[in-house]
What we know:
Oligomer: single chain
Distance between the termini: 32 Å
Structural class: mainly alpha
Helix content: over 70%
Radius of gyration: 21 Å
Strand content: under 5%
Shape: globular
Amino acid sequence: MSSTPQTDSPKGLAYAVAAYGLWGFLPIYMKALAHLPAAEIIAHRIVWSLPIAAAVLLWQGRAAEVGQALRQPRLLAMAALTAVLISVNWMIYVWAISNDHALDAALGYYINPLFSVFLGATLLGERLTRGQVAAIALAATAVIVLTVQAGSLPVVAIGLTLSWGLYAYCKKSLPLGPNQGFTLEVLLLTPLAAGFLIWQTLQGQSHFTGAGWGQALLLLGCGPVTAIPLLFYANGAKLIRLSTIGILQYIAPTMIFLCAVVLFGEPFDGARLIAFPMIWAALVIYSVTLVRQAGQRRRDRRDLAARRMQ
């Protein structure tokens, strides 16, 4: 595994922007399948992602690493956990888009970087800056505002935040490259997904075989729209700084937000008019702390290099 890059390569930026842009447009694709059960859509996302992920590994000559991982029980258990977390995230997301909760999905992905900072502090003992504490407090207050207004927790937003945040946290402990790890995850999920689709077909409930070519092609396309942005992201993240990733990750929830309000006509009123600006303010504070920390690291490296030259 390569060390964290100190500069942003144009290739890495292109990969990362493409990944977040594709994720931003994903609600439009999922909305076209909104009439189908979320479980069926997820099953197709898993089954049709596997050939793409496997083809990438074969092209890179890294397929043997997945074979080796399959013979290591501890690694398999870790991959099974991340596979469950990502499938839960996909299920919540697909259900949210299909049931007119795209704004809640955007909120969940806006909160996610702040939740990752919180995880780092609570589980890894990382020290929080005052700005990060303020950002997390603002985000928590926004959730409270939404809860009071609705009379219940924003389950979709919190579910997406928890599932993706824990997935990213556990993924860091998986001793595999990003492409190999994703391939192993979908490989572990494929027997369950394929079994579910076969059962649906035998019950005469399949929307893949019984609703025309148009819908079949959309379900086939669930593989590319799932695997390609994840592979773009995995490769881009190796070539750009963490602070850059921290800023770019707002692209996707912003596009989801715009899709929800402009294209899907979801209401942006009431408590959301208070909560979303609070989240945006929190993200501005968080971004400023990222930029400052990156600048301090660069100054520290220059000072160290200068001392070595003396």
